[in-house]
Specification:
Elements lengths: L1 E3 H8 L3 H9 L5 E6 L2 E7 L13 E2 L6 E2 L1 E2 L1 H7 L8 E2 L1 H7 L3 H15 L2 H18 L2 H15 L2 H15 L2 H13 L1 H14 L5 H12 L6 E6 L2 E7 L4 E6 L1 H4 L10 H15 L4 E6 H6 L5 H25 L3 E6 L2 E6 L2 E6 L5 E6 L3 E5 L3 E3 L5 E3 L8 E4 L6 E11 L4 E6 L5 E3 L5 E3 L14 H31 L9 H4 L11 H5 L8
Parallel strand pairs: 10-11
Antiparallel strand pairs: 1-3, 2-3, 4-5, 6-7, 8-9, 9-10, 12-13, 14-21, 15-16, 15-20, 17-18, 19-20, 22-23
Length: 517
């Protein structure tokens, strides 16, 4: 049945302007007829069956009118007091999508218009309206849902992928991006670090495996240990053992027939090369292996850990004895590596401990241990408050970092002091600048009381020198009494008159009748 456009709109409750657009887009087949001086648009009534809801039109929930978009103005004019969210059909978006040339032209026109006095007023009105709209939680939620729905459409994903491939195929674009990355490398690294910190990195299977390790008595492993630009699921820094728990879906698995995410597979390869080139032993366990046996590889890790810890601890001790073990320190406002001279352990079960949380990390210290304020003065951890600033080394230069919290924690049995000659400022693993001591275990003591320990050290060194001199004198006497025909040693030097026993040096030198000790 054929009818005019007006009759078609009245019968199906459609917006006239939108029917005109559908006719122009050839969605609705129409014919133009001339009747006298009037032009009539004739439409077949069966065309309504070809229209699809949400694609060619949307319906007003109240009046059921078919339109291109249900706007706030339509709701206020036709149905005052009703609160209905704005909705658009897909064809409306496609019809109103501008080309890059149109966008540039519109931008230039608006810039010229906003430079006029009337444009300044318009800009102020638009800004106030935008702030008011963006402050509406309901609008934000609708905007987020709409954006997510549009971005997840298959055609949008394909278009985004093709656009990215087309851009990176251009040598000029690639050169431009390489220059941008080179000039803003520190900002990009910081942005990536913040993004990683917001991610939920520990999976349920990872937490379960860590529990099995602790159940079997395996210690010294740190979760989410940072090594260079990467994070390791479980790491023993002393033994240099890294454990990675890989989900079969994301990391790929030949047994489960999972391809994996290409970006994550590439990151895994780079991480493996990075760790192996630095002497780390890397173990990767798949999700299906741990589901089949939750204790997979634990005994193997225990044996390897014992051997590697003993060997690496010996290397660390030898490096310390040779004076090659160094820590980061502040010298004239700049970072430098300084060798350590002494390590002292103290019993501190009676001291209060505080965990200081900052923007770049945390440190657990005793109540009288000091960090540094913005004026480079020592400030004790017990007086730090939320919002204070201390000096740290988040990147290559020292900067003020904000204290997020300072809370008391249970005391520890032992803390360690490390002495470095020539400086009193040391950088902890977290990047925080500490006063006079650097703690291996993450806790340390204030070095203001180190004069007592220094006196003890000097007294010990004096006693040690005396013992060494006494030992040398004994050796000289023994060497002087050597007689080859009776053998070597103090007892044989007396010849055949000696009896079993040990002759004391004091009685032997004092002449008179020999006495035996």
């Amino acid at each position: 049945m054929k009818m005019t456009k007006r009759a078609f709109c009245l019968k199906h409750n459609m917006e006239v302007q939108w029917v005109t657009v559908l006719c122009d887009k050839r969605v609705i087949h129409s014919q133009a007829q001339l009747a006298g001086k009037r032009h009539w648009v004739i439409i077949d009534d069966d065309c309504i069956k070809d229209l699809i809801k949400e694609i060619h039109y949307v319906e007003c929930p109240v009046c059921r009118k078919k339109m291109a978009c249900v706007t706030k103005k339509h709701i206020e004019d036709m149905h005052p007091g009703v609160n209905i969210p704005t909705s658009y059909c897909e064809l409306y978006f496609m019809n109103h999508k501008k080309t890059q040339k149109q966008k540039r032209h519109q931008s230039k026109t608006l810039k010229k218009r906003f430079k006029t006095p009337a444009g300044e007023i318009t800009r102020r009105i638009i800004g106030e309206a935008s702030k008011k709209l963006n402050a509406d939680p309901a609008y934000k939620a609708r905007q987020k849902e709409t954006f997510k729905e549009v971005q997840n459409r298959p055609e949008m994903k394909e278009a985004t992928k093709n656009l990215s491939l087309e851009r990176w195929a251009s040598p000029s674009f690639r050169k431009k991006m390489e220059k941008y990355v080179h000039e803003n490398i520190e900002q990009l690294k910081e942005s990536a670090r913040r993004a990683r910190s917001c991610q939920k990195t520990q999976s349920k299977i990872h937490i379960a495996y860590k529990g099995k390790m602790m159940e079997r008595g395996i210690k010294h492993f740190i979760s989410e240990y940072e090594m260079g630009p990467y994070k390791i699921d479980e790491a023993d820094p002393v033994a240099k053992i890294a454990i990675e728990i890989d989900g079969c879906f994301w990391h790929g698995c030949s047994v489960c027939k999972k391809v994996g995410d290409p970006r994550m597979l590439a990151t895994d390869k780079r991480k493996d090369s990075f760790l192996k080139n630095r002497g780390w032993a890397l173990f990767r366990f798949k999700e299906h292996e741990l589901k089949r046996d939750p204790y997979t590889g634990i005994e193997m890790i225990r044996n390897i850990q014992e051997k590697r810890r003993q060997a690496n601890l010996l290397k660390i001790k030898q490096s310390f004895w040779k004076g090659n073990l160094k820590v980061r320190s502040m010298i004239e406002g700049k970072m430098d590596w300084v060798p350590m001279s002494d390590i002292m352990r103290h019993n501190t079960p009676h001291k209060k401990m505080f965990r200081v949380m900052t923007e770049i990390g945390s440190v657990t210290v005793t109540e009288d241990h000091s960090l540094f304020d913005l004026e480079n003065n020592p400030i004790q951890s017990s007086v730090l408050k939320t919002g204070d600033s201390v000096i740290g080394l988040p990147r290559k230069e020292f900067e003020p970092i904000k204290v997020l919290s300072c809370e008391e924690v249970p005391p520890e049995l032992h803390t360690y002091d490390i002495s470095v000659p020539g400086t009193e400022k040391f950088v902890l693993e977290s990047g925080i600048l500490a006063h006079n001591s650097y703690s291996i275990s993450g806790v340390s003591l204030d070095i203001e009381k180190s004069s007592k320990y220094q006196a003890m050290k000097e007294e010990f060194m004096n006693q040690y020198d005396k013992l060494v001199e006494a030992a040398k004198r004994s050796i000289k006497i023994i060497k002087g009494l050597k007689q080859n025909k009776y053998g070597v040693g103090l007892q044989s030097a007396l010849g055949p008159m000696s009896r079993p026993g040990v002759q004391s040096r004091r009685n032997f030198i004092s002449s008179g009748a020999p006495s035996w000790s």
